[in-house]
What does this fold into?
Amino acid sequence: MGAGRKTSTYDIDTGAQQLGFVERQRNLGENLGGVIFGCSHDTYDECVNGLIFGLPRPHICYVQYIVPGMPVFLYNYSDRTMHGIFKAVRWTTFPNQRTQYPAQVRVEVYNQCPSLSEREFRPLLKDCYSQDTSQSSRLCFELKRSEAQNLCRLFNAASARVNLGAGATRPASQAAASNSKAAGTASSSSLGEASTSE
It folds into this structure.
């Protein structure tokens, strides 16, 4: 069978497809500005406690462009919330380890912010959603720099609202300036100068 040719078999992660996983990639390459990883209620604790996020094998083509300091976010399919802000420490694959999610990235918490509902972040990421109306809830995980910056700003604004609500007395103008600085910082590839080119 196979006429002497070497054949390979690949497992398809149908569960992730049903939960909103999109196989199309945007092919941003070195213009990648951030990455969203996925989890469910069942895997959330494993991701945030272990600080390793993973995606299925087809995502290696862009996960390899993650650089230390790049902003990373965690999307919970179960309740459609986004968690952040994390930053990449390094990406790696484990070829000898059997896992459904070999495109793995070690992360650390950059700024622990309140989670965002899809209603809050979807307008910022409208180009990341499938244009096919039958799959309009499917989210692409590659982010342009501007999208990553905007998502960082949204997280920082949510964090500022919570801090002010808890009795902090920082003026809104200071919070906005701080949020703008932090968003630009967190969304650059090295947590240094922010680049807005796409």
Q: What stands out?
A: Residues 14-186 form a domain with the ph1033 like fold fold (CATH 3.10.590.10).
